[in-house]
């Protein structure tokens, strides 16, 4: 009896599902061992009780929300690609099946909004599938279409969906009221959340898409959670809501195939589902853009990645790893290796200063500058000993020398710069390159005139040019 009851209930659920024959626009069957693409369509048709105040009055049901869901062959990842309803596309001619079984060709249109691929002139979901294939090069295998009731019934079946907003929302047009932070929405409130445009961003469709992506991600996690799957009551409510809310293509229009699709989707880790939007730019043909067009180059890269079943999750990981590696390499280059002063060569070039300036600079580096550096190092060391608590000079040794007035030294430097800046004839400094000897006969620097060039021994070199 239990087996008979289960069979009858499955047939009952199957009777809830509405199907559409899309012909060659989709695949003839669902294959569990291959990658697959499902086109999820949300219409703005005012069907169902309580929906009179939503959508466009008299709408035949446009493609208001469209998401192309690509599931990888190995089920390691999935991509949910949102297609803006205001995207300018070419709608191809499409064959539709009439109620009497006859077929009719609906003529296509060029340079029109994407949402017109459904509903107008008798276009069915197969026309939307063909439009997606032509615009992206990605052929949808199947479609699932839902109206306003689907959002209300599905969220109620799982006892609400968690959402998060940065600021409090009070939208009189969608009647959505939410406090800042996390909230749980279901039923009418959930529908208002996915439909509102005036509460977020620039009140446009692209910002609404981001909200819908957040909502769908949360709904998918809730449906796949153990709390839902282990509750017979919630499972029955979800099965009833899903089958009544959906219209699908004929090859998947039975409960067994829908169950297989659900099980394949469950294999995909929710953390590896990437939500993204088709890359677009404002329509350059419009003085005040209200529609968008594909972003050259970038959009095709996204389409190609999906066509080749490449994971955006892995692409992002590789990009982050590459950026991290590059940042580490830059930091290493900036850190570098510090050369010992004795290994640094200094070349002094006379580029127009008075004769003998190179020798004067050489003398300065050998004497005055060196003494200043030694004195400053000593002063810094002394200040460090004084500033450090509990550290004092050893008994019998003097403390740090007092800081000297720097003004006399500054005046000498300014006088030297004035002498160097006096105009003079271009000439070569007669002073040859010299190898300076430091304490105890150790080489400190290589300093020379502009004419002298010693043999390159691979040591780092500092060039100082006088003008």
SS element count, helices: 13
Helix-and-strand structural type: alpha+beta
The total beta strand count reads 21
Distance between the termini: 105 Å
Mean pLDDT: 78
As an assembly, this protein is: single chain
> C-alpha Rg, in Å?
38 Å
Biggest sheet overview:
7 strands, mixed
Low-confidence stretches: 426-455
Tell the overall outline. elongated
**Fraction of helical residues:** 25-40%
Q: Strand share of the residues?
A: 15-25%
Q: Order of strands across the biggest sheet?
A: 1-14-9-2-3-4-15
Note the main attributes of this structure.
467 residues, alpha+beta, seven-stranded mixed β-sheet, two-stranded antiparallel sheet, 21 strands, 37% helix
């Amino acid at each position: 009896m239990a087996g008979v009851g289960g069979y009858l209930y499955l047939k009952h659920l199957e009777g809830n599902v509405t199907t559409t024959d899309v012909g060659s626009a989709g695949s003839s069957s669902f294959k569990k061992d291959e990658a697959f693409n499902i086109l999820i369509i949300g219409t703005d048709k005012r069907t169902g009780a309580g929906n009179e105040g939503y959508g466009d009055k008299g709408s035949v049901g446009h493609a208001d929300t469209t998401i192309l869901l690509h599931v990888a062959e190995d089920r390691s990842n999935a991509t949910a690609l949102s297609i803006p309803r205001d995207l300018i596309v070419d709608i191809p001619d499409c064959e539709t099946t009439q109620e009497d079984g006859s077929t009719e060709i609906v003529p296509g249109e060029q340079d029109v909004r994407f949402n017109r691929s459904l509903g107008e002139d008798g276009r069915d979901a197969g026309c939307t599938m063909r439009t997606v294939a032509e615009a992206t090069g990605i052929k949808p295998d199947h479609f699932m279409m839902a109206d306003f009731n689907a959002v209300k019934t599905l969220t109620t079946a799982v006892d609400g969906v968690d959402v998060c907003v940065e600021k409090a929302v009070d939208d009189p047009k969608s009647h959505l009221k939410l406090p800042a932070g996390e909230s749980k929405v279901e039923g009418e409130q959930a529908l208002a959340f996915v439909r509102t445009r005036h509460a977020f961003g620039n009140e446009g469709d692209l910002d609404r898409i981001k909200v819908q992506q957040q909502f769908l991600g949360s709904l998918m996690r809730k449906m796949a959670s153990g709390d839902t799957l282990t509750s017979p009551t919630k499972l029955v409510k979800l099965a009833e809501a899903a089958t009544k809310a959906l219209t699908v293509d004929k090859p998947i229009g039975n409960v067994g195939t829908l169950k297989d699709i659900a099980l394949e989707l469950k294999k995909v880790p929710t953390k590896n589902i990437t939500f993204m939007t088709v890359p677009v730019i404002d329509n350059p043909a419009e003085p005040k853009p209200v529609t968008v067009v594909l972003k050259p180059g970038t959009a095709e890269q996204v389409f190609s990645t999906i066509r080749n079943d490449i994971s955006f999750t892995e692409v992002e990981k590789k990009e982050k790893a590459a950026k991290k590696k590059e940042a580490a390499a830059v930091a290493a280059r900036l850190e570098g290796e510090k050369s010992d002063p004795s290994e640094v060569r200094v070349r002094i070039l006379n580029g127009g200063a008075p004769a003998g300036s190179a020798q004067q600079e050489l003398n300065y580096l050998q004497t005055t500058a060196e003494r200043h550096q030694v004195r400053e190092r000593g002063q810094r060391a002394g200040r460090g000993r004084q500033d450090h608590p509990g550290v004092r000079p050893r008994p019998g040794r003097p403390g740090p020398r007092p800081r000297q007035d720097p003004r006399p030294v500054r005046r000498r430097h300014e006088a030297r710069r004035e002498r160097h800046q006096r105009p003079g004839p271009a000439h070569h400094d007669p002073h040859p390159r010299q190898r300076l000897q430091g304490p105890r006969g150790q080489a400190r620097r290589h300093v020379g005139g502009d004419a002298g060039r010693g043999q390159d021994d691979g040591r780092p070199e500092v060039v100082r040019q006088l003008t």
